Amino acid sequence: MSYFFRTFILFSKIQFVIKVVVIYDLNPSWDHTEIREVRNSARILFESLQLEGIKAYIEELNNPHLERILEKYNPDNTIIFNLCESLPGLQYSEKKIVEIIENHGFTYTGNTPEVIGLSYDKQKVKDVLSSMGIMVPRGAILDPEEAEGWTLFPAIVKPSREHCSLTITEKSVVYDTSSLREQILLVNNELKQQAMVEDFIDGREFHVSVWNNEEPEMLPPAEMDFSAFREAKERLCTYDSKFIPGSEHYEKIQTLVPAPLDGKQFRKLEKTALAAWKGFGCRDYARFDFRLRNDEFYLLDINPNNDISVDTSFSMAAEIQNYSYSQMVKRIMLMAAERHPELAEEFQLNNLPARGHSRKSIVA
Fold first, then answer.
1. Cα of 131 vs its chain's centroid, Å
2. 3-110+323-346: which CATH architecture?
3. Closest Cα to residue 309, out of 321, 300, 299, 319?
């Protein structure tokens, strides 16, 4: 059965049988601007599903009790569109969210607990990628007293268990032992976790979006254009560049989609991104961040369940492929629908994992 015919039949049944519940998290301690932006992004996605003829509902998770929301719905006729990054008030709980959804028997969008959990452990990510033959920056978990033993400069100091560029500023790029020790201490003290020290790859940066399941597809790569900055330490995606409108990095870093790549570079990037996707057991959608130095692509980070808001590089890349935003989120929902037991059985898709579980992968 062709992909388009299969999804047509799936969608026809979904319109009459299945409801889609969009769940997003919101921490009451956030400032008013952040709360407004999070609510607005979730509502745009919710309304986009409705625009596509999907019976959609929206729920705000503003406390740790996700089960209270889930108990309002029946997993036999519901798909969860999961936008949650944490249980409000509980650090590092993105994996726990998906475990709760699975334990309540729901089919859901996005990646499994195993993949999400691994993505937060930067050292394990490096180990897995290296075992697959994928280039990664040299790096190590270092304590402040170990700074003397690091000799590769410039280096960048990152949290070892975070996404979202927390604590990443221009000062994160260091050129000497004293600055290295200072940044390790900053991560230790502010985030109460170990610091990852890496060779700083001063080169072009690409955010590569991949989606689909049986035949994963790389969307047009996006390049983060740092041409407005002269110094190497300025040419990076800081926390401000992602979350602080009006900041220099937010305003001056431009996103180029599609990225200007020659044919050889494009094929190499695609091969590497798809290998990482398959090796980690990703599904539905994920983003891979690369840097290019001396014709080699270095994979910096893996972002399962990356931000798919309307203004992100993922959405821009989908638009280049002629998907409107509503069509994009509909397609992601259909990827999850193929795992719903009722739909999988009817359309002879039983070879797909039921409910939330993924095929065996390198992280299993």
1. 22
2. 3-Layer(aba) Sandwich (3.40)
3. 319
Residue 298 CA to residue 45 CA, distance in Å, equals 32
Dihedral angle of Cα 228, 290, 332, 8, to the nearest 10 degrees: 100
| Angstrom distance (rounded) from CA 32 to CA 149 | 44
Residue 284 DSSP code: S
Residue tagged 């952040």 (tokens) = 34
Beta-strand runs (E) in the chain: 19-25, 56-61, 78-82, 107-108, 139-142, 155-159, 173-174, 195-199, 204-211, 217-218, 222-225, 254-256, 285-293, 296-304
Whether 136 shows a pLDDT value over 70: the answer reads yes
Please, which residues bridge with residue 79 across strands? 20, 107
DSSP string, 220-244: PPEEEE-TT--SGGGSS--HHHHH-
pTM exceeding 0.70 = yes
Helix (H, G, I), strand (E, B) or coil at 43: helix
Among candidates 355, 310, 357, which has minimal Cα distance to 105?
355
Architecture of domain 119-135+201-304: 2-Layer Sandwich (3.30)
Let me know: does 7 contact 67? Beta carbons within 8 Å.
no
Helices (H) and strands (E) in the chain, counts: 13, 14
155 band by pLDDT with thresholds 50, 70 and 90: very high
Sequence-ordered list of residues with C-beta below 8 angstroms from that of 179, at least 6 positions apart, any chain: 171
123 contacts 141 by C-beta, under 8 angstroms = yes
Give pLDDT tens digits for 181-190.
Answer: 999 999 999 9
Distance CA(264)–CA(313), nearest Å, equals 22
- Is the Cβ–Cβ distance between 48 and 309 less than 8 Å? no
Say what the pLDDT of residue 357 is.
40
First vs last C-alpha separation in the chain:
30
Residue-range domain boundaries for the chain: 3-110+323-346, 119-135+201-304, 139-199
- How far, in Å, are 10, 33, 262, 325, 327 from residue 311 at the CA level? 28, 16, 26, 10, 15
